């Protein structure tokens, strides 16, 4: 007996050692190597090419409508939001298949080291027969093709599908919110870039003039042709103007970079800006009854609509928890084949019906239901909190718009006054009735007034779009992937007065 078992033990030991070696080698390959600099450079180059793929170059001065259309079509963050919505749709398609019966095919090969021998028992004498019977081949193949339908899986898949459908709606609302923020940022960056383009030459010329006046003053100070204190005061005023001009210049330099990033244009490449007038008729927003604005916001606000869908997801979770407390009924039907030559019937059909119930669900089921109901209560509370936040932001956005319009009108008046003063000081300097300091100071004041005018204009645009976002009003455009940039720009331009929907009573 010991001699017969030794080869088997040796074979078993060898097999275990081989399995251990294979397991260790597999574990050693589980940790991927760190990426090399060449790999990172290759991925970066591929990403850079993908970012610029199919992006039309800017031809001619960029209008505000085209900037918004480019942002909607080419902005990388918006592309990610669209992909999230597409992924949610694909997940919905996959979830729907969970409700279908399972159709499975199996092919199995069995082999044993000795024959399967069975003996029989005489029920009258209780003796076991001395003759054994081989009831199965040492090696044989089994195959089957069967369909299984599980009623509980069908019910859970049904509610999963409903939940995933709501998640698709949630992804769409998140895309709407992202679009509102994107358009708001584009408006701000566009007017900053427009002011940079308008003020660039004036700032450079005034800086040059201030530096020349500063050099002349220092030369006169060294020659002691005037009171040193007066010269130093003169220089300090010039330096103060230079500091202000350089701060303005620094502010303007980043405007083009911000705009290029939003519309996915090459960074560092100059973008010519076509100055656009303030076109939105915000008088409708400020004159419309606040009750009407609240009604529109509660119906269309993207963030609030998202919370409505979250509440529906929580409600479906409660129904799933209740469904799991019911008995499970499953049905199966299959075609089977076994190559064993000792079988009389190698082919057969098999049908089964099974009813099962997990008695532990009597303990855990009620707790799961209570947990799901708590999730519903939390979703309802979040929706109510969001509703209050939306109404609060609506009132604040309306007040900010009124204030922004007032500030813009005041900035217009200040700029017109400073511009006239600057023109008069240039005339006085030309007839040598004024100093360079006066001209530099007045030119600086005019530049600062013009900058504030553009900033006030941008704030009007931002305030208007912030109110639009709270109301849930956005341009009605087609698919940004299917539309060309020209057609998309035309559609955005056609929606340049979004307040028209309020006038129409929508």
From TrEMBL:
InterPro entries: MdtP/NodT-like
Gene3D superfamilies registered for this protein in UniProt: Outer membrane efflux proteins (OEP) (1.20.1600.10)
SUPFAM superfamilies documented for this protein: Outer membrane efflux proteins (OEP)
UniProt entry keywords in alphabetical sequence: Coiled coil, Signal
Keyword Signal: yes
Domain of life: Bacteria
Secretion signal, residue range per the UniProt entry: 1-26
Recorded coiled-coil stretches: 203-265
Name of the protein in its database record: TolC family protein
Biological source species: Hydrogenophaga bisanensis
């Amino acid at each position: 007996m010991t001699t017969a078992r030794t080869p088997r033990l040796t074979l078993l030991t060898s097999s275990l050692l081989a399995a251990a070696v294979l397991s260790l080698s597999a574990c050693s390959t589980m940790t991927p190597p760190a990426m090399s600099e060449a790999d990172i450079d290759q991925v970066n180059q591929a990403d850079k090419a993908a970012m610029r793929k199919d992006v039309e170059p800017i031809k001619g001065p960029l209008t505000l409508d085209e900037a918004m259309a480019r942002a909607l079509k080419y902005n990388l963050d918006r592309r990610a939001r669209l992909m999230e919505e597409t992924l949610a749709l694909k997940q919905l398609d996959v979830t729907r298949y969970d409700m279908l019966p399972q159709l499975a095919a199996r092919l199995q090969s069995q082999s044993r080291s000795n024959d399967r021998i069975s003996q029989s028992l005489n029920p009258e004498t209780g003796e076991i027969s001395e003759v054994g019977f081989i009831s199965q081949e040492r090696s044989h193949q089994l195959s089957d093709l069967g369909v299984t339908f599980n009623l509980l899986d069908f019910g859970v898949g049904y509610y999963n599908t409903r939940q995933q459908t709501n998640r698709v709606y949630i992804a769409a609302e998140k895309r709407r919110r992202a679009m509102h923020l994107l358009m708001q940022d584009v408006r701000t960056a566009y007017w900053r870039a427009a002011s940079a383009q308008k003020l660039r030459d004036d700032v450079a010329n005034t800086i040059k003039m201030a530096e020349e006046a500063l050099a002349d003053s220092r030369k006169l100070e060294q020659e002691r042709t005037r009171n040193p204190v007066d010269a130093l005061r003169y220089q300090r005023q010039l330096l103060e103007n230079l500091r202000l001009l350089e701060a303005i210049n620094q502010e303007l330099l980043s405007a083009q970079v911000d705009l290029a990033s939003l519309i996915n244009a090459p960074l560092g490449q100059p973008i010519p800006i076509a100055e656009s007038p303030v076109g939105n008729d915000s008088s409708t927003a400020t004159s419309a009854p606040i009750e009407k604005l609240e009604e529109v916001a509660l119906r269309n606000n993207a963030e609030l609509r998202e919370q409505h869908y979250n509440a529906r997801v929580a409600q479906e979770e409660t129904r799933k928890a209740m469904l799991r407390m019911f008995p499970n009924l499953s049905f199966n039907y299959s075609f089977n084949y076994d190559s064993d030559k000792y079988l009389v019937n190698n082919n057969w059909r098999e049908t089964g019906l099974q009813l099962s119930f997990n008695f532990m669900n009597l303990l855990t089921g009620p707790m799961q239901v209570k947990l799901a109901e708590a999730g519903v209560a939390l979703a309802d509370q979040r929706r109510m909190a969001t509703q209050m936040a939306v109404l609060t932001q609506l009132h604040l956005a309306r007040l900010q718009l009124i204030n922004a319009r007032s500030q813009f009108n005041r900035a217009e008046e200040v700029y017109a006054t400073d511009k006239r003063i600057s023109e008069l000081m240039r005339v006085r300097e030309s007839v040598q009735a004024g100093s360079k300091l006066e001209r530099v100071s007045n030119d600086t004041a005019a530049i600062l007034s013009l900058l504030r005018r553009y900033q006030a204009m941008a704030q009007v645009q931002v305030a208007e779009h912030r109110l639009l976002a709270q109301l849930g009003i956005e341009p009605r455009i087609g698919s940004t992937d299917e539309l060309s940039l020209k057609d998309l720009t035309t559609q955005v331009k056609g929606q340049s007065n979004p307040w028209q929907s309020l006038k129409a009573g929508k």
